[in-house]
From TrEMBL:
Keywords: Glycosyltransferase, Transferase. One of its GO terms (molecular function) is glycosyltransferase activity. CDD domains: GT4_PimA-like. Residues 20-170 form the Glycosyltransferase subfamily 4-like N-terminal domain. This is Glycosyltransferase involved in cell wall bisynthesis. Pfam families: Glyco_trans_4_4 (PF13579), Glycos_transf_1 (PF00534). Residues 200-360 form the Glycosyl transferase family domain. Signal peptide: none annotated. InterPro entries: Glyco_trans_1, Glyco_trans_4-like_N.
Length: 385
């Protein structure tokens, strides 16, 4: 008999439309798990806030996805009690061997409260010194919510049977007593990204893909691109990603107008997988100027596609990118150095192609779905031991 797995967490609300790194990671991992002979079934539970197109979808003979309405009020204060009750009903129905929570907040808490054989994956750590854009908004309510989430994260890490770190960096900041087993497993990039390699020569275009927030710092990237545009007038920048904060989006647009870059910078919101593949294929390099990261999925996808990466030396990024080999690393908020590294790749197509080839080789070793699924099943076996 093979394993029966229940995965709780962010998952695409509709096929081919991915919102953020966790959805990308789960939607890549699930079919790779289902392809294994030692896995009988994978059930995915995704809570939603009225934006799901269906309540149930089957994705192949082994995979089914349940979209349940999530608790709207007092989720954090009540420990997401209503969501927990719905999850337990599904557990009773599918009888999983392992329950896997895809983060260490409320989803991870529900996972470990549903089963003693719980696995949780750390996709970000709120209780570090870095403030969370999504939680602590400076208000009394935001500070309270932030404090409660931190308490939940600590409890999840203490009680989960297996804790999966997606980078060595988050292993270092998880300095709390963890009773279970800690393992390291990177997020996978889908086979469709590997299929883009080897990269072909491209126009002088740079790609940012991520949520428009101050943590991702697209405003700082725009400032650096203004310097790039002076050296390479034909250069273009494509900014792609969800835009949850309209005020921040307005700040980005205002900065573009001030710098006179409207004709050289394209802004797109959430795009489907086909469009993202096209954006990566067209880019000379993928750029992230974040102030804090764990292990961004977009970097793994770019490397899989044979693209060099320019990113900040924060969180787990230095574990993914070899400075001067598979891309460039810069300090956060160092706009001048960021601009210099982008120019190097824009004026030297052969350098970009060479770095991209090496990045692809690293991705083949670390970020294939098959390899990540193998490590994940090993983690499940530890949870069952």
């Amino acid at each position: 008999m093979g394993m029966r797995i229940l995965m709780i967490g962010a998952y695409p609300l509709e096929p081919g439309v991915v919102r953020g790194g966790i959805e990308s990671a789960t939607s890549t991992l699930v079919p790779a798990l289902a392809a294994r002979d030692d896995v009988d079934a994978v059930t995915v539970l995704r809570f939603h806030q009225g934006d799901a197109l269906t309540s149930y979808r089957r994705e192949g003979p082994k995979v089914e996805v349940h979209y349940l309405p999530g608790q709207r009020r007092l989720r954090t204060v009540s420990g997401s009690f209503r969501d927990l009750r719905r999850a337990r009903k599904l557990v009773a129905q599918v009888k999983p061997d392992v329950v896997h929570g895809q983060e260490i907040g409320l989803y991870g808490d529900i996972a470990q409260r549903c089963s003693r054989q719980s696995v949780v994956t750390v996709h970000g750590v709120t209780f570090t010194d870095v403030k969370s854009d999504a939680l602590d908004d400076g208000s009394l309510r935001g500070r309270l919510r932030d404090r409660l989430i931190r308490r939940v994260e600590r409890r999840v890490l203490r009680l989960a049977k297996v804790v999966v770190s997606i980078s060595a960096w988050d292993s270092q900041v998880l300095d709390l007593p963890i009773r279970g087993t800690r393992v390291s497993i990177p997020n996978a990039a889908g086979a469709e990204f590997f299929a883009l390699a080897p990269s072909q020569p491209t126009p002088p275009t740079l790609l940012f893909a991520g949520v428009f927030t101050s943590r991702k710092n697209p405003v700082g990237l725009v400032n650096a691109f203004a310097r790039v545009h002076m050296s390479v007038p034909a250069a273009r920048l494509s900014l792609v990603g969800p835009q949850p904060d309209l005020n921040y989006l307005a700040l980005v647009r205002d900065r573009l107008r001030t710098l006179g870059l409207q004709g050289s910078v394209d802004i797109s919101g959430l795009v489907d997988n086909d469009r993202m593949l096209a954006e990566i294929a067209n880019a000379r390099a993928v750029v992230l100027f974040s102030r804090q990261e764990t292990a961004p999925t977009i970097l793994a996808q770019a490397m899989a596609a044979g693209k060099p990466v320019v990113a900040t030396r924060v969180g787990g990024v230095p574990e993914m990118v070899q400075d001067g080999e598979t891309g460039f690393l810069v300090d956060s908020d160092d706009e001048a150095t960021l601009a210099d590294r982008m120019v190097k790749l824009l004026v030297d197509q052969e350098l970009a192609l060479d770095m991209g080839r090496r990045a692809h080789e690293v991705a083949l070793e670390r970020f294939t779905a098959t390899a990540v699924a193998e490590l994940t099943v090993q983690a499940y076996r530890k949870a069952l031991a």
